[in-house]
Design brief:
With 637 residues, the chain is α+β, with helices and mostly antiparallel strands. Helices cover 42% and strands 20% of the residues. It has a 6-stranded antiparallel β-sheet with strand order 2-1-11-10-7-8, with no helix packed on it. Strands 4-3-5-6-9 form a 5-stranded mixed β-sheet, covered by helices on one side. The longest helix has 59 residues, at 254-312.
Length: 637
């Protein structure tokens, strides 16, 4: 068989003859093309000619402007006598020596070539073509055409299967035409049996085959001869190669099985390798995505630490605040760090009283010893006494074993008594004795045990008012309140809300493995106006919910009902009432009007100032005065 072709290449009415060799011929502007055309409309690798068993095929290689024959854009097609191929503004046709793919002398030689040699030449052509391809959609037509040619079948099909689902289905007939809806042309029952079989599955004549004669899908399709060969690679079945003949019974013999099995085995290597490359590429992309996300989280955590160190002003673990009230608190904490005196932390629920107690312990001289916390308001007297002082076995019903109390556990360390104002008078008396004598006695025992404990108490009620009302012992009050630290509510921490919100958004995003969300100016303004009765605890829970349920910038309509209601109240500027002193009434109305104007203009200060009838500078002064935060500037065009 001759190894060369002659092509006539014509552009701008100038023709040239090109002689090329080989069974695959690349056409395009690239330096490695056998037929190189200087056409700006051609791609670097535009199309390819392939020779397969005496036929010449044209294959488009995803070119930008397409490959055309007789006004039809082609993907893969067998060339016929007289076909003119158009690539951009360039025309290509076989020369006289090429004829209709080969000369008459070459056709005679092909007929004289032994079938096994022809099969070998087909295998080599298919292998060469598949090795150059990186797309399944272009590999499969080559495989089908070769299968149809080797088996002398009427039609050929390939079904690729992944996770028991058909991902690709393609069919072509002996005339190299695409078979529409290939999944409807082949019996699903036959395909299922072929997948379960150990090797190729053949029907010599469906009309008389006892195993398949009763299968409706086979008889309805009018099938007679069929051969199904699995495409297997590295122990897994990639799909099925199918050939059939609807008019001829016994069209396939053992020779067909051998030829197609060899072809399928070779093709499966390339298809499997391509699938493995795609899987590896997908894993690399996923790995890169995870590395990027991890990098963002690490950077976010670093920024949080830097923010904490920058804004907290004291370096106290877990405490964050740049407001004057928090800075005053940090200063008082610094002064008592090295002391063992009792401390009373007073503040509303959710302000972070336990965080203050832990910070005093961690940064103080007892840091290496235990920190033990007890909620005094959560237990009745009997259980609270056992919790604090411990008990012996049999001291009361249910005391089945000896138990160490919290005072003993905190020996040489710090004991945090939360909600100490909820203690009964009897428990107050016992606590006072322990604080005075430094001794405890377990329930049911006469043994006295010495303890060295620094006590930090916390309450959300006014203990002095409780002393005045007679519900709390005055002597215990002064024993606990050597130093009093007042935790400011969130509404009194001017400028801290945005700082805390950004910190908590970063923490929650890192804990949940998500990208950190950001507050829009409108959402931030709404949150600044909110009352936050639950203080910092409520704020963190709000931001945890927003991180869990959404993505991207946080809009004001995502805020919970409580926050939204506070915003609405602030928006209309409700008067707090005549019982409130006049300066506070004016401040409430004025701050609500400012927040409403900012919300209306989505944080644009200039437009908000015009709406309020004041200068932009006056607006900035008032925003600073009421601690409404630093809304993003969005100047009008």
């Amino acid at each position: 068989m001759a190894d060369s072709f002659e092509f006539i290449v014509e552009r701008d009415k100038i023709q040239r003859m090109v002689r090329v060799e080989g069974d695959t011929i690349l056409v395009g502007r690239g330096q490695d093309c056998q037929i190189r055309i200087e056409d700006p409309l051609a791609s670097r690798a535009h199309c390819r000619f392939e020779r397969l068993e005496g036929e010449l095929f044209l294959v488009d290689l995803d070119s930008a402007n397409g490959t055309w024959i007789a006004g039809e854009k082609i993907d893969r097609r067998s060339l016929q006598q007289g076909d003119v191929v158009r690539v951009g503004s360039t025309l290509l046709r076989l020369g006289t020596e090429g004829g209709n793919m080969m000369s008459a002398s070459e056709s005679t030689v092909v007929r004289q070539v032994a079938p096994d040699k022809r099969a070998l030449q087909t295998y080599l052509t298919v292998a060469r073509t598949l090795s150059e391809e990186d797309r399944t959609e272009r590999m499969i037509p080559v495989l089908i055409d070769a299968a149809v040619s080797l088996s002398k079948a009427e039609r050929g099909f390939v079904f690729l299967i992944e996770d028991k689902r058909t991902t690709v289905a393609l069919g072509r007939n002996f005339a190299r035409e695409v078979v529409a809806s290939p999944e409807r042309k082949v019996s699903q029952t036959l395909l299922d049996r072929a997948l379960q079989a150990d090797g190729p599955l053949m029907i010599e004549d469906a009309a008389s085959d006892g195993d398949f004669a009763g299968v409706a899908s086979i008889s309805d399709l009018g099938l007679r001869s069929m051969l199904v060969v699995p495409l297997r690679h590295a122990g897994r079945t990639l799909g099925l190669l199918v050939v059939d003949h609807r008019l001829q019974g016994g069209a396939f013999r053992q020779e067909s099985i051998d030829l197609l099995s060899s072809l399928a085995g070779m093709a499966a290597v390339y298809l499997g390798a391509l699938q493995d490359r795609r899987t590896a590429a997908s894993l690399r992309r996923r790995t890169n995505q995870l590395q990027t996300q991890l990098g963002r989280r690490v950077r976010a955590q670093d920024q949080e630490k830097q923010s904490l160190q920058t804004h907290a002003g004291s370096g106290f673990s877990g405490l964050l605040g740049a407001s004057s009230t928090m800075q005053d608190l940090f200063t008082r904490m610094e002064r008592i760090l090295e002391s063992d005196v009792a401390v009373l932390v007073q503040g509303e629920s959710g302000t972070g009283k336990e965080l203050v107690a832990r910070a005093l312990h961690i940064h103080g001289p007892r840091a290496a010893r235990p920190f033990v916390a007890v909620n005094c308001g959560a237990l009745p007297d009997t259980l609270l006494e056992s919790e604090l002082f411990g008990h012996t076995k049999g001291a009361f019903t249910g005391a089945t074993r000896e138990r160490t109390g919290r005072f003993e556990e905190a020996d040489s360390g710090t004991l945090f008594l939360d909600e100490v104002g909820e203690m009964s008078e009897a428990m107050q008396a016992q606590l006072l004795r322990v604080l005075q004598e430094g001794e405890i006695r377990r329930l049911g025992s006469d043994e006295v045990r010495k303890v060295d404990v620094r006590v930090i108490a916390a309450t959300n009620v006014d203990l002095f008012a409780a002393v005045t009302a007679g519900s709390f012992r005055e002597d215990l009050y002064y024993r606990l309140r050597v130093i009093q630290l007042d935790m400011p509510p969130l509404r009194d921490r001017d400028g801290d809300l945005r700082l805390l919100a950004e910190h908590f958004l970063g923490v929650e995003a890192a804990e949940m493995g998500r990208l950190q969300r950001e507050l829009t100016p409108a959402a931030c303004a709404a949150m600044e106006v909110a009352a936050w009765p639950g203080n910092v605890r409520q704020l963190r829970n709000e931001l945890r919910r927003l991180t869990l349920l959404g993505e991207g910038p946080i809009e004001e309509d995502e805020l919970s009902a409580e926050v939204g209601q506070d915003w609405v109240r602030g928006e209309v500027g409700d008067d707090p009432g005549p019982k409130v002193p006049l300066p506070e009434r004016i401040a409430a109305i004025e701050s609500a009007a400012l927040a409403s104007a900012l919300r209306e203009h989505k944080g644009n200060r200039s437009q908000a100032a015009r709406t309020l009838g004041i200068s932009r500078f006056a607006l900035l002064r008032k925003l600073e005065k009421y601690g409404l935060g630093e809304a993003e500037e969005q100047e009008a065009d």
